[in-house]
Every structure is written in C-alpha cells, then in structure tokens.
Specification:
With 564 residues, the protein is α+β, with helices and mostly antiparallel strands. The chain has 23 helices and 13 strands. 59% of the residues lie in helices and 9% in strands.
C-alpha cells in the first residue's frame, strides 16, 4: 500500500477532507493524489457495491463528458467550510483558471456560519485591548449586523458618542485557517506531482496566492490601511463615502470604523427615502470604477453588491477592503490602449495590447490566443447580440488564455472580473446604461490630460533625472571594468588597442547622451513656452523661437556625432 511521507499535517482534518471528496464522487481524484489509503475500507467497499455516485474525473469534465462537477465541487467546499469556502470564493473570481462554469457555480458560495456568541466576542475584545469592554464603548450591540467565516461585525458607540462598526475576527479562526492552508498547499503539491493534467493550472502557485490573500484578510490592520488609502484617493469626491478608521480602537484582530447608514443597492423601494436616484448611483459607481482602473491602478478586488451602500443625496458608500488589486503603470497604459483600440474596432491591436499584459513562454500558443481574441472581439464589433457587454468581451478573452498557455497575472483577472461586476451593477440600477457611451469620452479626456504640457514636462524631468543617474554611474562602472581587466579577472581578454577603442566609444556615447538630454530639455521647455504663446522674449525674439534654433543646432551636432 502506497503511503506518501506526510509533513506535520493536521491528520484529522486531512481525513475529513479526503473522505468528503470521496463521498461526493471525486474518488478518481483521491486515487490520483495517492490518498486513497486515508479512506476507510468500509467506504471503499460500499462504493464497489453501490453505483449511485458517478465518479467525475477532471479531464472528463473539461472534455464535456461529465456535467455535474461544478455543483458537487461547490457542495464539497461548503461541507468543509472554513478556508475551503474562502478558496471557493477566490476561485469564483478566477474563471481564467477554473473555467467559467465552475466559477459561476462557486459564486453561490455563502459563508453559512452561525454567529459567534456575544460572550466570546466580548472576551476577545477585552483580551485584545486589555481592558473591560465598557471602558472602550458606551454601547455595544450583542447581535451582529453581519457574520462571515473569518469575522463578524457589531454596531457600537464610542465613549464620545460616535457610532462605529466593529469588525472582530472569530476567536480561534487563525489556527483553524492556517491548518487548512497547510493542507491545501500539500494537496496542491500532490496534484502537481501526480496529475499531469493539473499542471497547466499551476495549482501550487494558485494556492500560494490564496494563502497570501487570506493571511492579509486575517490581519485587520491590512484592511484598515487599504481603507485609508482609498479614502485619500477619493478625498475630493462628494458622492463617495468611505468609512473612517479609528486607529485607537483598531488592532490586528479588531477593526473599528465609522458606521454608515444606508440601504443595499437592490433595495429599490428605499431610494426615495434616501433621496437618491438609481440612475445617478449607476453613473457614480462607473465613474469610481473608471478612476480605479484607468487612473490610479488601485481597485476594490471584490466589488459585489454587498460591499456597496446607497446613502442620502446620491452618495455611494464603499467598504470591505480586505481584497484589493493593483496594476502597474505599464499595465494600466496597456489596458487604456486595449480599450481605445477596441472601441475603434481594431481587434488585432486590442488583442496585442492584451497579450502584453500576460505571461507567456515557449509553450504558449500566442497566435492561437490572438485568433481566439479576434473571434470574440469581431463578434461584438459586427454581430452584437442583445444584451452583449463590452466588459464581457475582455473577461472571456482573459479566461480563454489558459487554453493557449497564456497566463494573466491575478491582478488582471481580478480587474476583468471587477469591470464585469461594476457594469452588471450599473445595469441593475439603470437598464438603459451604456458603458461604451461613457467609456469613449472618458478615455478621450484621459488622453488629453496625458498630453498636457505640464504632464509632458513632468515626464521629461523624470526622464532627465533617470538619465543623469545613469551618466553619473557610468564612470564608476568604467573604473570597475578597468580594474577587472588589469587583474585579468574578465572572462574575455582585451588587448590595449581594443580597450582604447571601447573607451573612445564610451566617450562618444556619453557625448551623444548629454546632447540628447539637452536637446530633449530644450524641446520640452520650448513646447511649454509655445503653449503660453511666447510671452517672454530677448531683443524682441520669443524664447520659443530661440529654443527652436538651438534645437536645430544641437540636432545637427547630434547627427554628426552619431555618424562619426
């Protein structure tokens, strides 16, 4: 009998996980993971006798032969609870890895957990603050306003009369979750080692990413920092409310923030009471989303309707910042370029920009991915179905990448899903909402901003600073090169004539760089002066004209230098 060497795992929990997989028909998976020995003999015998549970291997599901896998997989995760529900919720955001049908099924996962008794919550708070609950809050409601698998939220009032929402980690949850995470990593390692089919999904990477996210969710200070970050980004927004964090009453296990009085997005009867308009809220939500995705590259990672409240006078409240996404400036520029080309119906350029955001290697079918993307885009361009959404086109292409060995960073997959969710919520509130009509002028205006002289000047200053740093480092690098040559430690030996030619070439290249930098600086300055109509002059000659002449002279010198 095969018995793999086990790391120090919670064996009781491992047994429960394996038996649950087996009970719901995943016995083939259990066998391939080399864990069948964990299943009691009587269960294996009964499976041989009874035929009411049909096995469902993963390959056959993805091949279309078995249709019931998503539902059974969801039931397994719900039955196991804890980290497995959180894993399923993360999978629901990663259709690019698990496929849209499984992701859609897993979106039904709910944290069906009973709330922690008030006595335990009270003890946890007093232990964390090291003082009686009554010395922190003048009132603390015993019944939670929300309960989930990791934490629950209670309404309270501070000593100064401020109403607050207090989020408290469930006592003992950290150890339970970490035991589950240890098991999940072990199962991922077994899958990647023994089941070749799973390797294209990179289970170890996926579980490691899940562990990283969950560890952040277990640290409420991390969520508090994210909340304050969003507050600073939208400090000038009159229509967005983000609760303030009360740091004196916030720790790793307790988050205290401003209480927000509002209604859920789908409480349509309550809009009149709040003096708010569904159409206005839809517009505000998409404006916030556009700014997150295209301007700051920092966005709410799980913008489902439960994380929004509608407040009075067309104010939208956004909360629960446990999961946030980030994309780099380069990624953000590629995303903007993708949408601009998409709106211009240039499918190939749009697909190319999308591919630049992905991770590929020698096994990736880049051409196949672009063909698949073009099919999706062109069906939207020329034969749009009723109810077709621009956000779905991006999302479907991203989740198709795994078939072609094209992997998108989790931030891009998260962003694609977030765009779909935000558009869906806007349509829920305003069925006439058209994202294309709002996206085109928004991106046009964004490009105008990027081309403003002051923005160009700022980028020019950054370029000059970086370039001068390189020039400053060049002599030191040359000295190190000479020292290595003298010691004979260079892998390639140079005779003195070769080295002299290299030194001369370095000097020539330095001159070219300096002239280039001066030329660019003058051009940028000239552009700004032209923008302000050349109000400054010397002997009646505008600075802008002098700048152009100087640029021409330096340009000629630069060309001569390059030719020599």
């Amino acid at each position: 009998m095969y018995m793999p060497s086990l790391p120090p795992l919670p064996i009781k929990r491992l047994k429960q996980v394996v038996e649950t997989l087996y009970d719901f028909g995943f016995e083939i998976w259990v066998g391939r993971l080399k864990l069948k020995y964990v299943v009691p003999l009587h269960k294996r015998y009964m499976r041989l006798v009874r035929k009411d549970v049909v096995p469902c291997p993963l390959e056959e599901y993805y091949g279309g032969k078995v249709q019931d896998v998503p539902r059974r997989f969801r039931l397994v995760l719900e039955h196991l609870g804890g980290a497995y529900v959180k894993l399923g919720q993360m999978m629901s955001l990663r259709a690019d890895i698990v496929g849209e049908r499984i992701a859609q099924e897993l979106r039904q996962l709910q944290d069906r957990v009973p709330s922690v008794p008030y006595a335990d919550i009270k003890a946890a708070i007093e232990d964390e603050f090291d003082r009686p609950l009554s010395s922190v809050f003048s009132r603390f409601e015993q019944k939670p306003v929300g309960a989930a698998s990791l934490a629950q939220v209670h309404k309270a009032i501070l000593k100064d009369g401020t109403p607050v929402a207090v989020k408290v980690l469930r006592p003992g949850i950290e150890k339970a979750i970490r035991d589950d995470m240890l098991l999940l990593r072990y199962l991922a390692e077994l899958a990647e080692r023994h089941i070749e089919f799973t390797r294209r999904f990179h289970p170890i990477d996926f579980v490691n990413e899940f562990i990283e996210w969950t560890n952040k969710e277990l640290d409420l200070v991390h969520e508090a920092i994210n909340t304050e970050h969003f507050r600073s980004l939208y400090a000038d927004s009159a229509n967005l409310f983000i609760p303030r964090v009360y740091w004196d009453f916030t720790t790793k296990r307790i988050l205290t923030m401003e209480f927000s009085n509002g209604i859920h997005l789908d409480d349509f009867k309550g809009y009149r009471k709040m003096k708010s308009s569904r159409k206005a809220i839809a517009d505000i939500g998409m404006e916030i989303a556009f700014r997150q995705f295209f301007e700051v590259g920092y966005f709410h990672g799980d913008p489902h309707p439960g994380n929004f409240f509608v407040m009075s006078n067309n104010t939208l409240c956004l909360h629960d910042f446990g999961i946030v996404g980030r994309i780099s400036d380069d990624m953000r520029k590629e995303l903007i370029a993708f949408y601009i080309n998409f709106l211009e119906k240039d499918g190939e350029a749009a697909a190319t920009h999308l591919l630049r955001m992905a991770q590929t290697d020698e096994r990736s079918d880049r051409e196949g991915f672009i063909r698949s993307a073009l099919d999706e885009f062109e069906s939207w361009f020329y034969a749009p179905k009723k109810g077709a959404r621009i956000s779905n086109s991006l999302y479907r292409v991203v989740i198709s990448g795994v078939r072609h060995g094209v992997r998108f960073p989790s931030s891009i997959a998260l962003l694609a899903k977030s765009i779909v969710t935000m558009e869906s919520m806007a349509l829920l509130l305003d069925p006439s909402f058209n994202i294309t009509q709002r996206l085109r002028p928004y991106l046009t205006e964004l490009m105008k901003i990027q081309l403003k002289p002051e923005v160009i000047a700022k980028k020019g200053r950054e370029f000059l600073t970086d370039s001068f740093q390189i020039l400053e480092q060049l002599p030191e690098a040359a000295q190190k090169l000479i020292a290595l040559a003298r010691k004979g430690e260079m892998p390639v030996r140079l005779d003195i004539e070769d080295f002299e030619r290299i030194r001369n070439e370095i000097d020539r290249q330095s001159d070219i760089r300096i002239l280039s930098l001066v030329l660019i600086a003058i051009l940028i300055t000239t552009a700004i002066m032209l923008h302000i109509q050349g109000v400054s002059t010397i002997l009646g000659i505008p600075f802008s004209t002098i700048g152009i002449i100087a640029s021409i002279v330096l340009g000629v010198q630069l060309i001569l230098r390059i030719k020599n």
